Amino acid sequence: MTVQKDRIGVGIVGCGNISGAYFRGLERFDGLRIVGCTDLSQELAQAAGERYGVPVFASVEELAAAEGVDILVNLTPPLAHESVTRALLATGKHVFTEKPLTASFATAAPLVAEARERGVLFGSAPDTFLGSAGQTARAAVDEGLIGEVIGASAFVTHSKAELWHPDPTFLFIPGGGPALDMGPYYIAALVNLLGPVASVSARARIGSTVRPVSTPERRVESIDVTIPTHASATLDFASGAIGTVLASFDVWDHNLPFIELYGSKGTLSVPDPNNYDDAVRVRLHGEGEWRELPPVIDGFTDGLLEELLPLRGPGVADLAAALTGEPHRTSADFALHVLEVLDAIANGTDGVHTLTTTCERPAPSTGTWRSASLEETAIA
Ligand SMILES: NC(=O)c1ccc[n+]([C@@H]2O[C@H](COP(=O)([O-])OP(=O)(O)OC[C@H]3O[C@@H](n4cnc5c(N)ncnc54)[C@H](O)[C@@H]3O)[C@@H](O)[C@H]2O)c1
């Protein structure tokens, strides 16, 4: 059924650390309006409701039943993503989830199928590749600026959480690890640039079995590590490009780039894929120095939350625009393929793992959908 609507209504599920970046970030999109929020902790939900001026609901079901809710956004921890997303899909609403899609490929695949059966849109972070950096790098590749892309490298070297986080246990138990925590930004960026991965070979191990927590505000003294924290992988892209990926919580200091593409005509330097809008640089063979590429679309980074987190929301706006017939760039199908790659990296492979999923590269973004007035939508 097609209905007339000025703005798409969004309900927020999970009012923890990242939620402020959504409450503030979604305000920037003319076509969206936050209808309400909920959390297992009513205290947290009330605090967020008061801080951001949003009605608070006692449960997911009450939030979903509220007038005008079209999209439910899952901002719960990774290990809760599967059960919470299942509950959100059961309400019949469209669903967007924070990354990773779920804590494992095996648990995510049935949810993607369920969303399809229910006829609702299902989207997932990361959405940072929709920013000006991801789109500028994509345009450079598509225009053949660096020629044929022969190889790529990505270095996911997030560490030192023990020095500042009061309880980083979640990073060192199932659902955590460098591949699932920060890896989604890197692999989504690579698949956006180079297309789907055909196979992965990876080795993974635990670095230190015990991680002492040293911040004065710590709530735990140390963590027993139960999952690999250091992985090295080779990705064979269907395009023929070969990717080198390091994902580690054991690389404390380094001189590595974030992402680089090595082409027959030059090298493309892609900035931190956890951000939307940093500079993309290129150096063609024989050129004396690196040069910055002019951004092909406007950026999203028009604000930081108090905690210095970049504001979020492009993926939710992308899903809303998909309801009007725009391509769904941050679809769960795309995220499922990315998760299958991440799962293989995170746990290591016994020989070569041939991917069971594939995906289309997301359509390049013109940026126009971001402020589109969503007057006509196909919401049942
Ligand atoms: N914190 C960050 O900097 C950051 C950045 C990018 C993405 N993310 C992603 O955002 C998600 C949330 O991370 P966070 O740091 O905000 O976690 P958090 O633990 O601070 O907050 C999660 C909230 O979800 C609530 N919750 C758990 N189960 C629930 C349920 N069944 N129903 C309703 N509420 C429930 C918890 O009570 C908690 O308030 C994760 O997927 C994470 O990967 C976090």
Name the bound molecules.
Answer: nicotinamide-adenine-dinucleotide
- The helix content, as a percent range, equals 25-40%
* Rg of Cα set: 20 Å
Number of β-strand runs: 18
Strand order of the largest sheet: 16-15-14-13-7-12-11-8-17
CATH class of the largest domain: Alpha Beta
CATH architecture of the largest domain: 2-Layer Sandwich
Task: Estimate the strand proportion.
Answer: 15-25%
Keywords:
380 residues, alpha/beta, Rossmann fold, Dihydrodipicolinate Reductase, domain 2, 2 domains, 9-stranded mixed sheet, 5-stranded parallel sheet, 11 helices, 18 strands, globular, binds nicotinamide-adenine-dinucleotide, Gfo/Idh/MocA-like_OxRdtase_N, Putative dehydrogenase
Characterise this structure:
By secondary structure, the protein is an alpha/beta fold. It has 2 domains: 3-127 and 365-377, Rossmann fold (3-Layer(aba) Sandwich), CATH 3.40.50.720; 129-298 and 332-354, 2-Layer Sandwich (Dihydrodipicolinate Reductase, domain 2), CATH 3.30.360.10. The chain has 11 helices and 18 strands. The chain has helices spanning 19-26, 42-52, 60-65, 81-90, 105-118, 132-142, 161-164, 177-181, 183-194, 314-322, 332-347; strands at residues 3-4, 8-13, 32-38, 71-74, 94-97, 122-124, 149-156, 197-205, 210-212, 222-224, 230-237, 242-248, 259-263, 266-270, 281-284, 291-292, 353-354, 376-377. The protein has a 9-stranded mixed β-sheet. Strands 3-2-4-5-6 form a 5-stranded parallel β-sheet, sandwiched between helices. The termini are close together. The model is unreliable at 372-380 (pLDDT under 50).
